[in-house]
Amino acid sequence: MLLPKMHRIRQKVDPPVVADVAAAVASEIRKLNLAGRVKPGARVAVTGGSRGVANIAAILKATCESLKALGAKPFIVPAMGSHGGATAEGQLKVLARYGVTTESMGVPILSSMETVEIGRMSWGFPVLVDKNASEADHIVLVNRIKPHTNFRAHVESGLMKMLVIGLGKHQGAIMAHRAAVDVGLPKAIPEVARFSLSKLPILFGLGTLENVRHQTAKVEAMLPEALEETEARLLTEAWTLLGRIPFEFLHLLIVDELGKEISGTGMDPNVIGRMYFSPNEEPKSPRYIRILVRDLTEKTAGNAVGMGLADFSTRRLANKINFQYTYTNALTGLSPMRSKMPIIFETDRDAIEGALKTIGLTEPPDAKVARIKNTLDLEYLFVSDALLPEVKERTDLEIVSGPHPFEFTAQGDLATN
Length: 417
Description:
Layout: E1 6-11, H1 21-31, E2 43-48, H2 56-69, E3 73-78, H3 88-97, H4 102-105, E4 115-120, E5 126-130, H5 131-134, E6 138-144, H6 159-166, H7 169-182, H8 185-199, E7 202-210, E8 216-222, H9 227-241, E9 249-255, H10 269-272, E10 287-293, E11 312-314, H11 315-318, H12 323-332, E12 343-345, H13 348-356, E13 369-372, E14 380-384, H14 388-393, E15 397-404
Parallel strand pairs: 2-3, 2-6, 6-7, 9-10, 9-13, 11-12
Antiparallel strand pairs: 1-14, 1-15, 4-5, 7-8, 13-14
């Protein structure tokens, strides 16, 4: 098959970035004047998430060091719902992949799937929290704030959600997603989080924002009484920083890799225009006829949640799937469609040619094709000849090099990245 020629382009961006993340964390915590709130020797649980937060090791270490300076005794608890195969050992391994270990942090990491019930919502939802966190004198919430992949509300993926799903561990995550069917996440997340805030000894929240380069763009600490309002404001900022593919229509989108550290759904639905989450309607924009995902990241450790958002994939990806991790995560999130196997081709060449046979009357050399590394790394991408007129009309895009033919190894896999 004659394939289109590709050009490397760049989206012209100049995003904000925090030069010294650890210093920014320490500065923000100092602004809260916590000395009167923390008694010497107080045990403080600090949440450690699993979503590939930029600089998470530096952020958690600086948070723990600030707490030590107050005379507290911090420890980290994994706050990641069902991730890591919903096991205590698996969640420790997830944190370790991000550089978060007892040795690197200088504090204990207490990993357990045991929870305690702290109350029930009027609609029957049991509010669960990590047992180790519940026994602490204080809890500190640390998380990235960004648009969620399943729902729209004034707060989405951030500190309020971590209170409900992250600290709720496996059973709490299951219950929260079940509530999404009957109550809706836009109602369940803030209402349950408010209840938890009223019952738990939350010392403060630390939210981060990230830019299109997956760098820390902002750090802000907030007292519990201002948490919801502050997170809502930061979510508005996060939307302006979200990276996007600069085309509304494609015949084929090629994604080199998916993984849990890239998005909770492996590939961000806000970027690819596919939701596959009942009862939500599918996005009307962008519209990409076919999506091919080529591989899994190393850090996702076989968790292939999100592969079902693609139409086609490769034997390389299929051989790396840990079905226990993938299906545990998918069932907990009530999103089985997102974890169905796409059509598997033996090689990249077979997959690209197979995809281009399904785009309609457009001949492959004339197809509008884009190729990205992943849905976080969007500053640079490859686009086909057919997209060049759009590129040249826009001041926010520039052509870096090209044309480049698709080059394959003798085994049929793409030779260049």
